[in-house]
Each structure stands twice: as C-alpha cells, then as structure tokens.
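Box 3.1. Reading complex inputs
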Amino acid sequence: MTKVFGYPESLTDMPTHYCPGCTHGIIHRLIAEVIDELGIVDKTVGVAPVGCAVLAYNYFTCDMQEAAHGRAPAVATGIKRVIPDGIVFTYQGDGDLASIGCAEIVHAAARGEQITTVFVNNGIYGMTGGQMAPTTLPGDKTSTSPYGRDTVKQGFPIRVSEMLATLDGPAYIARVSVHNVAHIVKAKRAIKKAFEYQVAGKGFTLVEVLSTCPTNWGLTPKESLDKVQREMLPYYPLGEYKDIEAGEKK
Amino acid sequence: MKGGLSMAQVIFNEERCKGCELCTTVCPVKTVIIQDKYNKRGFRPAGVSDMSKCIACAACARICPDVVITVEK
Amino acid sequence: MGQRVLMKGNEAIAEAAIKAGCLFFFGYPITPQNELPEYMSRRMPEVGGTFVQAESEVAAINMVYGAAGAGARVMTSSSSPGISLKQEGISYMAGAELPAVIVNIVRGGPGLGSIQPGQGDYFQSVKGGGHGDYKLVVLAPANLQEAVDLVTEAFDIADQYRNPVLILGDGLLGQMMEPVEFRPLPERVLPPKDWATNGLRNHRGHKNVVNSLVLQAVGLEAHNIHLQAKYARIKEAEQKAELLYCDDAEVVVVAYGSTARIAKTAILALREQGHKVGLLRPISLWPFPENAINTLVSTVNTFLCVEMSAGQMVEDVRLVVNGRRPVQFYGRMGGIVPTPEEIATQILESMGVTNHD
C-alpha cells in the first residue's frame, strides 16, 4: 500500500477549535503540506493573527508568534530582519489584514519585505460574532449591517489583491479559492509558489484565499462553498495579479 | 504492486471529524457517508459505505478541514 | 575606551544602544527625537545593523516585538504621542516577556501638545500606559553621560528579566549636547534566549511560541503571578537614586531628569546661603526608590516634589511617605521649563521662609 494522502508533519495533532466545515482547516493543511514539501519547518516562523485563527500557533509545528490585531506584517518584518535565512509567514483574516492592519500590509508589501502572507477572505468577522468586514459584499447582512451592507453609508468592499498588485514591492500576489477540490489544488499551487518565492528571496508574496464562515453566514458548510462560487468569485476574480517572473502585471 | 487491482483504502480518524459533511459532497463514486453514530465530541463522523467502490482519488481528504482522512492504495 | 565625544542627546542614546549590541532599530519621526532615528539610519549600515523607518509608531513597536521574539537586541524611540500609540504593543511585550529598550523623549501634552520638554508621561510610564497588570523598568537620566550609561545597562536589564525597559528622557536631554564616554558596565549574568523564535528549531528539538494569550483564567492567573514575582525581584534589586546633601536636610527636593538638574542649581545656591536643603533624585522611576525615601523620612521635615507636570511622581512620593511627613508639590506644565530661581523660591516657601532677593 502506498500512501496517497496523509497527515502533514508540519501540522500538530491538536484538534482545531474551528467550526465544522470552516475553510481555515483546509488552508492550514495546505500551508503545512507546502512547508513539508519544501522541507523548511525548522527555519519557519509563522505569525498568528487576532481572529478565529488566533490559536493558529497551536496548530503548526514550526515556531510561532502571536501578533496584535492587524500587526502581523510588522511583527513578521521584525522577525525576518533578524533571521533573513528563516521563512516567515503571516496568516490573517479580513479584519486583521484589510481593516485594522491595512497600513501594515500595504507597507510590508511596498517595502518588499521577504515574507509570505496568507490572507483568508470570508467577507465577515467570524471570531467576534459576524460583524461586517471591509470585504463584506454589498447587500450582505451581518451583525453590524443588519439591513444589508449599504454602500452609501457603509462603503464598498476592498479588493486587496488588486490594490497590493499596484505596488512595486510585491513579487507574487494571487487570489485563489477553496470552494471545491479542483480549486483547493490550485490554491495549494499558489501557496507553494508564494513560499518558493520567499525561499528564493524574490520579495513579498501574498495569496488571498476566498473562504467561508458557515456559522456567521447562517449556511451549511456546503451551502457556504456554493456562496463563494456564486457570489464572491464575480466580485473577487481569481488569478495571479502580480508575478515578477511572469514579466508583467495582470 | 503484485497482480490484480490495487485496494484503495480511506481511513477516517473518526474522533477528529466534526460531521461537516463536505467529504460526502465530493466523492465521485458516492461512497462517503455520514455514519449513524456519535464520536466523543458529539459529532456524527463521516465514513465509507462500500470501500470496494473507492478509487483513492482523495477528493474527500482534500476538502476535509480537519485532516480526518488518509488515503492509501 | 576613555575617549569623550561631544554629542547631541538623541544621537548619544542611539550610539550607546549600538555599542550595547543593539543591531535593530525600528522607529518613526516625531519631534523632539528625530535625530535618533536619523542617526540610526546612518549608523546601522556602518555596523551591519538594520534600520527600518516604519509606517507608524504602532508598526514600529510591533516590529520590535517580532525582532525581540526572534532573539535580537532591539530598540525603538518616540515622543509622548507616539509612545501612546505604542501602548498596546508594549503591553503585548510585557505579557510575552520580551526584552527591548524603548526611548521616550517627552514633550508637552496632552494630545498633540507642544514640542518643548515635559514630564507629563510619568503616569503612562510607571502606572501602565498599556492595559493589564504589568510594569516596565523605567530609567530617567538627568545628563547625557547618565543617559548613555542607562541605555547600556537597559539592554542588560531587559535581557536579565525578559522585560521591556523604558528610558524616560525629555526634549532638553534629547536636544542638548554634552561630552559623553561610551564605557562598559559591570557584567550581569544573562540567561540564554532559548525561548526565541530564531529559525533554529532543529537545534532546539522543540518549537517556541511567543505569545501573551492565555484563554483559561487559571492559566492567566498563574502567568500573572509569575510576572508579579518577577516585578518583586526587580523592586528588590534595581532601585536607583542619587542623594545630594540629604544627611542634614530639612527640606528634600524630589525631582528627576532635567528638572532635578535645575533643582540642583537652586539647592547649591541655597546651601551657600546656609539653608539645609537636599535633593533626592530618583533614577529608576520604576522600581520607585522607596528605600531611599524611607531612609530620609525620619530626618527631614518636608519633601518638595518638583516636576514639569501637574503632579505625577508626587503621588508616588506621598504613597511611600504615607503621611509621615508633608509632601509638597511645585510644577510647570505645557513645556515650560522652570528656572533655578523659581525653584529656589518654592523651596524657601516650603520651609516657611520667603525669598526677598
């Protein structure tokens, strides 16, 4: 018998606290698989956010630091400057990265910090009970947009990948999704490319992963994946928005 | 591999399963089901109804958020 | 060693940090400390160190957190409003037990305030500033040689106790120029940084986590008890003060930093006139030099606290004196620097004698 699919070594065996069907679990596993495949777990330091993934430091077997809300790119900058041969990644949700941490991610990207950010975009604040996020779609009901996001009073969502791709600092920016197995496979490829670029010293890399929040969306896990495909993909198109190896911006 | 068809096998670590049912929606041969029992955490774990149908595609394993499934063949 | 160099305060502090082995500086411009990051931006490349001008003081303190967590000696500097921005990060560092040196070149406040010197950040420095039960070691130099020595010692204190250390300066100290000598200090026994996330997990055999989140109350209480025990050890070992002419003093002026220096001029003049005045100059504001104050309570008539604020350190003096002697206060706010003459007048008034000169 050969193993076709197994448990990644870079993931601890601690059962996660994430809700049933939450895509955090899939994304954590993809990162762990990539770290395994690149053989870098000993020199990797991950930076956990504030959000549902605040306990991410319990789930990876590499060194981890817990950052203040939004500040993971700054924390990662400090770590990477001290251990330039290490591999440093941040794992952030939409509140952490696109709201309170918006300055930090823009500037880490602009400085071309040699770090990798995995940005989990599920259009809502999960941990705190389902409030509106900078990435909440127009019309979507959340606990702080109970009548549906009104773009007049509550503004428009932010497309992080497109925004960061306008900067010269990033080496690779991609938006992927995990709403079905085919896209999960593509998401892993993008995450692997992002880490490989850091290993090769190419610059700042970010992968935005369209994700779900079944609990706060009030949908089953499967219905949530369908919502990503039906509603999020049109607003947040998938693709590689920046790739210095490809020669030109998308 | 010696003679005949290889035996595909999916192993479910039932205590990790949260019964989210995502695996049941992606199996191409429709052999992944939710079992009629509870694990220690109160979830009804997923499992396989007929292992001989399994083709070891690992779709279930890939969509599982809790790394419940290992696949061998 | 032994060579004295004429330097501006902000720059002397920066050089002292580098000489103490600090090779990472993260900061942001704010008056009156801009010369410090500017000096770092020139000097760090010369010594193979790293300078990053962060996007804000918030980002800077979080870079310090990351770098300290990875095991490096690291510094940031700012002035009052910028130090306010850093408070969350400082609380995180105290909770995660990370060593670093933070420099506050205090200006007038509150709010945007002024760019002149002040001492209105005492409460922020010693009573918290950030949330939660934590303490910073707070050191207040009164001249540039002392600033250089305290910065050098601060890195050792930070490493010894795994705690951030705050150097509380002010705009006068930051801007003035004095000769300084960068000299080694008595060595301390420093524990190895085997807790750091330094990319060497294979050498250690286990992962390290830098964190201040403890969701179970039992665990968080235990962690706080551990922190409090550390602070008790620091209180025992790290109180620092200078006493001048206190042996026969009837009035003891309590002042720190630049104010102490001005008070000293007033005290020397009054001594020449035969008045029995002394100076207690706290150098460690936390731990507060309770021991020094307690030795004076039985012999002095009154304490006069002088600060460039509405009265902050005076509360700690009163707490220690605990009603045993009167504790009076004189202060100037808004960036006004008191003169030796006005302090002398206050000292005489506190004795019940007015100055007719």
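In summary: The first helix of chain B runs from residue 22 to 26.
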